[in-house]
Amino acid sequence: MQKAISQAVIKRLPRYYRYLGELMDEGIERISSSELSQRMKVTASQIRQDLNNFGGFGHQGYGYHVPTLYNEIGNLLGVNDHHNMIIIGAGNLGRALANYENFSKRGTSIIGVFDNDPSVIGSVTGKHQIKDIKGVEAFVKEHGVDIAAICIPKSAAGEVAKNLAGLGVRAFWNFSHMDLELPEEYIVENVHLSESLMQISYMIQDQDKKREKDK
Hints:
The protein is an alpha/beta fold. It folds into 2 domains: 7-77, Winged helix-like DNA-binding domain superfamily/Winged helix DNA-binding domain (Arc Repressor Mutant, subunit A, Orthogonal Bundle); 83-194, 3-Layer(aba) Sandwich (Rossmann fold). It contains 8 helices and 10 strands. The chain has helices spanning 7-25, 33-40, 44-52, 66-77, 92-99, 136-143, 154-166, 193-214; strands at 30-31, 64-65, 83-88, 108-115, 124-125, 128-129, 131-132, 147-150, 171-174, 187-190. The strands form 3 sheets. A 6-stranded parallel β-sheet has the order 7-4-3-8-9-10, with helices on both faces. A two-stranded antiparallel sheet has the order 1-2. A two-stranded antiparallel ribbon has the order 5-6. Helix 7 (154-166) links the parallel strand 8 (147-150) and strand 9.
């Protein structure tokens, strides 16, 4: 029986991947868990525990072979596979995603951008001509879509996501101001930018309180 991997470990994998990529850019081929911990500000014990979930990858007295570990984590994350993604909503956020070029380096290709606003349909963002949302059903059926980035108001997000799920879209990167509720077989990542910003605000406030207390 396959061991269940915690969400906390899964969320750390992209960070390992990023740091290992930076090490490769620097020409570093070998690194110990303690050296990696200094860079990532994660304990060496945590790194070893995380990687041991997938077999360890390290060698006693040698550490980790950076290119090998980078490739292995890439395989775990699926970035060495290929996933098609569409963007629903061509507002500021949707356009920003469409213009971000690094998705293709992480195994995901944006193949379509859709909106219902006649004033933007037909215009170009990034390398994509914005399409009428009315044609999304035929597009998904023709091209096969794994991921939908939802960048529309919450009033429409739920219905649109359910329709796309019914067409075979498997995963949703949701930027609307609501948590999507879909059956558990669908993958949903709810991204609330304002919540992240409020966490920063809290930490600033907490830091200010500590400084006042230390005076």
